[in-house]
Amino acid sequence: MTPAARAQAAIEILDEVIASARSDGPPADAIVTAYFKTRRYAGSKDRRAVRELVFQAVRHSAEVPATGRAALLPIARELFDGSPHGPASAASEEPEAKPGIVPAWLLPELSPLAEVTSALVERAPLDLRAKPPREPLLPALPDAEPTPHSPWGLRLPPDTRISDHPAYLEGRVEVQDEGSQLIALACAPIAGQRLVDLCAGAGGKSLALAAAAPGAQIIACDISLPRLRQLGPRAERAGATIATRLLDPPREADGLADLAGSADVVLVDAPCSGSGTWRRNPEGRWRLTPERLERLLGTQRRVLDLAAPLVKPGGRLVYAVCSLLAREGAGQSAEFLSRHSSFEAEDTGIAAGRCDGVGRLLTPAHDGTDGFFMARFRVRP
Ligand SMILES: C[S@@+](CC[C@H](N)C(=O)[O-])C[C@H]1O[C@@H](n2cnc3c(N)ncnc32)[C@H](O)[C@@H]1O
Q1: Which residues are named in the active-site annotation (predicted)?
Q2: Could you tell me which of 320, 336, 322, 296 has the C-alpha nearest to residue 114?
Q3: Do 165 and 254 lie in a common domain?
Q4: Theoretical Cys-Cys bridge with 360: which of 117, 211, 334, 353, CB 3.0 to 4.6 Å?
């Protein structure tokens, strides 16, 4: 494919990505893959180049662009030269997507600590969580550096392929952002404890808890069977034992009744806007709406209220969201404390990040991690 033909392909894909963001359809990655399934003439270099153009255009624009053409123009105007198989020439006054980092409606929602810089949407490195100790792995991963905050972390350049590396296949490393590792560390797990990972998803944090405290009893819960199902093979690869529990909304409390007052730690890694992970998913900015944010705030409230009765006297509840929005982090935590007077906030035990209300906020610009809010609550003695 010529450079102009690649630009035309990127425009067609971006048109689909825009429509999909508006209708809550498949993500950009899936659209790129599907596009090339029916275009066998495109070689691997073409596919990589087109994908790069698509994601560069998505990163460029905070708001949903009007068209794929408008999205691509500001980053590849030179390819709009009218050559065969390429986009039609662009007039100098043709409207193009405006550069932006945060959608305008979300700016007032950001925590005061969330810096609006390009760090929010730049390509993120590949962070790994190593089975401790991490140092013996360094010779096998020559591009890796130890991460500064997590004792388990190794950092590789963006887009490093790890899934066929022996260290990955042998279960010695898992892909996990350093911020996520710090959330598991904030749980301070100890062998012999009962740990409930209430929103376990595919079990990224459950696996970190199991690695940190091999003798702990870990119960990974979620309402999504497809996500929870991924945990089995991952746990096997890591040599970890983790019980899973599928909850059935709106009767999650029934499925948790036998755990009441028994958990040393309950981790609530709640569904959220994902505004802390825009570096990995820049298209997330096009998909969040005020209505969706309100729904997420309601779900966070609900899972926190499900978690509170599970904690035993003297036990802890750790609340986390991969978000930079004040209402999802510090605001949600303050509301939790006002509803549950038996809990008090305590230090998270994590040095990274900065104090934000009763918790801590990690940001890409300040900490080099995805954006995370975390808070730790203890049942009053
Ligand atoms: C941020 S994700 C969890 C990510 C996961 N902890 C990890 O480290 O990979 C939030 C999860 O909460 C789950 N969830 C949503 N509502 C829930 C509920 N009422 N009870 C339990 N889990 C819920 C979602 O299915 C989703 O998997």
Answers
A1: 322
A2: 322
A3: no
A4: 353
Say if residue 103 is preceded by a cis peptide, omega within 30 of 0. no
3 state DSSP class of 25:
coil
> Does residue 111 lie in a domain region?
no
Residues 205 and 346 in one domain: yes
Cβ of 202 closer than 6 Å to ligand 1, yes or no, is yes
Rounded to two decimals, the ipTM of the complex is: 0.99
Q: Which of 180, 183, 222, 300 to mutate to test the pocket of ligand 1 (most atoms within 8 A of CB)?
A: 222
What digits encode the pLDDT tens for the residues 97-148?
999 999 999 999 999 999 999 999 999 999 999 988 999 999 999 999 999 9
Using CA positions, which residue lies closest to atom 6 of ligand 1? 200
Beta-sheet strands, E only, within the chain: 126-130, 145-146, 153-156, 173-175, 194-197, 217-222, 243-246, 263-269, 311-321, 343-346, 354-356, 359-362, 372-379
Domain containing 311 — which CATH number?
A: 3.40.50.150
Number of domains in the chain: 3
Task: Tell me, using a 6 A CB cutoff, whether residue 296 lines ligand 1.
Answer: no
Same domain, 11 and 141: no
pLDDT digits (tens, 9 = 90+) for 134-183: 999 999 999 999 999 999 999 999 989 999 999 999 889 999 999 999 99
Distance from CA of residue 120 to its chain's centroid?
Answer: 13
Residues tagged in the binding site annotation for S-adenosyl-L-methionine: 222, 269
Does this model's pTM top 0.80? My answer is yes
Q: What is the pLDDT of residues 242-294, one digit of tens each?
A: 999 999 999 999 999 999 999 999 999 999 999 999 999 999 999 999 999 99
Residues 155, 95: one domain? no
**Structural domain contains residue 115:** no
Q: What dihedral angle (degrees, nearest 10) is formed by the CA atoms of 118, 123, 125, 128?
A: 110
260 and 326 housed in the same domain: yes
Nearest CA residue ID for atom 7, ligand 1: 204
* Average pLDDT, integer, range 225-250: 95
pLDDT at residue 231, rounded to an integer? 96
**In which domain, by residue range, is 334 found?**
187-379
| Active-site residue (options: 187, 199, 221, 322) | 322
